[in-house]
Amino acid sequence: MDSLLNLSGCGCLFLGNDRVWMRTKAPCPNGLMHGCRRSGHRFLEVNPEGKVPVIKFDDKWIPDSDVIVGIIEEKYPNPSLSAPPEVSSVGSKIFSSFLKFLKSKDPNDGSEQALLDELKALDEHLKAKGPYVNGGNICAVDLSLAPKLYHLVVALGHFKGWNVPESLTHVHSYMKLLFSRETFEKTKAAKEYVIAGWAPKVNG
Q1: Of 47, 53, 129, 141, which has the highest C-beta tally within 10 A?
Q2: Does the keyword Transferase apply (predicted)?
């Protein structure tokens, strides 16, 4: 198993996604590197642009989250996490809606309602198809949504005092299911790092 060269605790969303994939794809080697402002000299030697996450596969450093996930799926096909086309876009607009609402300074700009609409759509899908996006088995869409929903809950709760409405019972059950998975528990960023990571975007 490759050693982590620099793994700090900041709440990088894409790092969280890739780390969940690697934990789920046991015995996928844990070669993921992560650098924040405190990144060491060795990290910047192999990754001069400082992009995160970055992983070493076949003596090549790859600094792209989507490419990393694709390689992990190709090299370690079992268990398969591929999402069928009919569910591949479920929840795809939640993150952009969350980001717009988080950064919004105007309570009447419609950003909160846009996020609610996306969460309601997810709730309806889970009601019909749950407990996961593709039914009984976890897939790539779930692993992508897990860190996004976690950041949403932590950041909006802290900066806006906002919570996912209790009426969205299927979304709440889904988040509880995802957040309680061992792979997520072992890879999630601490809440204080998530908050620190979003603070510049909120206060900037």
Answers
A1: 53
A2: yes
Task: Give the model confidence (pLDDT) of 153-165 as tens digits.
Answer: 999 999 999 999 9
Phi, psi of 16 (to 5 degrees): -60, -40
Q: How far is CA 98 from CA 84, 92, 103, 132, 137, in A?
A: 25, 11, 9, 21, 26
Tokens linked to 99: 């980001």
CA distances from 203 to 116, 123, 194, 196, 200 (A): 23, 31, 14, 11, 5
C-beta neighbour count of 79 within 10 angstroms? 11
Highest mean pLDDT of the ranges 28-32, 48-52, 168-172: 168-172
Q: Taking the mean position of all CA atoms in its chain, how far away is CA 3?
A: 22
Mean pLDDT of the chain: 82
